[in-house]
Amino acid sequence: MFAAAAIVSVLLALLLTFSAVGKLTKSDMQVESMTNVNFPVDKMWMLAIAELAGAVGLIVGLFWWPIGLAAALGVAAYFLGAVVMHVRANDKAVAPAGVLAIVALAAAVLIALAA
């Protein structure tokens, strides 16, 4: 079970890092997404920091599972919040946030089972 938890955790950490870099560099796709959900573009860096913290927590969690579990649950909450923002703004691009929330919940389950 640890192998599955490790694979999902590492892949999710990579996706979080990629997303954070997009926010920090203010990529056109990220700016458009933030604009669509009425999130202030000048505050995107805060979301990037949260994503990077989640990525670090998932990696550290490979060595101490409580940190990984907390990180996975935090990432799931982060993306559930993103889903809410997309739904409230009637934005059709809700699927990526929803999928990442599910992946984060799967990581939490796998980490808990591997503990």
UniProtKB/TrEMBL annotation:
Top-level lineage group: Bacteria
Membrane topology note: Multi-pass membrane protein
Residues that span the membrane, as ranges: 44-64, 69-87, 93-114
Localization in the cell: Membrane
Keyword field: Membrane, Transmembrane, Transmembrane helix
InterPro entries linked to this entry: DoxX
Protein's name according to its UniProt entry: DoxX family protein
Native species: Rhodococcus kronopolitis
